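User: I'm putting together a teaching handout on how multi-component assemblies are represented. Below are the sequence lines for each component of a complex, exactly as they appear in our records. Could you produce the 3D structure of the whole assembly as C-alpha cells, so the students can see both representations side by side? Please keep the chain order the same as the input.
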Amino acid sequence: MDLLRSLNGQIALVTGADSGIGKGVAIAMAHAGAKVVINHVDAHEVAQQTVDEIKANGDEAYAIHADVSNEEDVQAMFAETYARYGTVDILVNNAGLQRDSKFVDMTLEQWNTVININLTGQFLCSREATKEFIRRGVVEGRSKAAGKILCMSSVHQVIPWAGHVNYAASKGGIDMLMKSMAQELAPHKIRVAGICPGAIQTPINKPAWDTPEALSKLLTLIPYSRIGEPEDIAKLAVWLASDEADYITGTSVFIDGGMTLYPGFADNG
Ligand code: NAD
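Assistant: Of course. Below is the structure of the complete assembly, with chains in the same order as your input.
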C-alpha cells in the first residue's frame, strides 16, 4: 500500500485547519498530493502560516475564512473553492469547540454554540460538498468515489462526559448524521466516514496535558500510555480519503490508544 501522493490531483477542504488536528490533516493531505483549502474562523495570519508551511513543502493550499455554523459563510466558502480550484473531492468536517459547564448551570448559549458549530456546521458543509459531488460524479483516474466526507467526531460519541453534555451530544449527533448521510449517498458513490479521536495534544484540551499532574491523570485513561498527536489522526484521514479505503462508508474509526476499552476494568474492575 502506498499512501504517498494517494490524493494526487484532488481538492480537499478542511474546516478549522489553522490549528491542532485540522492543521495536521491539511498538511498530510497536501503531502499526499491534494490541493487543500484551509478553512479558518480566527485571524487570517494564523491560517496563512499553515498555507505557507504547505507551500514550503512544494504543495498547494489556500486559506478561506468562514464560520461553519453560518449558512451564507459556508456557501461563500464553497463558491470561492470552486473559483480557485474548480471543484472539491474531499471534505474534512473538523471544526469544533467546547463550552464546558456543569449541566445544571449550562446556559442556552453554551448549548447552542457547541451544537451549532460541532453538529450544524458538519451538516451545512456536507450538504454543500454533496451538491458538487452529485453534479460532477466520478471522474475517471481521479478517485473511485464521486466524493469523500470525513466527520471528526470523538470518543465522546460513545463515552458519556459529565460537565460536557453539549459536546458529547454534538458528537453523538455526528455519528447518526454520518451514518444516515452514508446510507443516502452511497448510491451516488459518495463515501462518508467518522473519525473518533481519544486525547490528542492540541489547544482544545490543553488543561488536560500541560502539567505533569494533569498528564499523568490523563494517562490513567489511556491503556497505550501516551497522548495522541495530530499526525496520528492525519495519517488515518489521508487513508480514509484515499481509494485504499474505497469500501469503507458509514462507519467510524476509533483512534484513541485504547481509551474506549474501559481501562477501569483492566485490574479486575
Ligand atoms: P483546536 O482548538 O486546535 O482546533 C479546532 C479548530 O476549529 C480551530 O481551528 C478553530 O478555529 C476551529 N473552529 C472553531 N469554531 C469554528 C467555526 N465556527 N468555524 C470554523 N472553524 C471553527 O482543537 P482540535 O483538538 O484540533 O479539534 C479539532 C476537532 O477534533 C474538533 O472537532 C474536536 O472536537 C475533535 N476532537 C479533538 C480531540 C482532542 O483530544 N484534541 C479529541 C476528540 C475529538
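A couple of points students might notice: The radius of gyration is 18 Å. The first strand starts at residue 11 and ends at 14.
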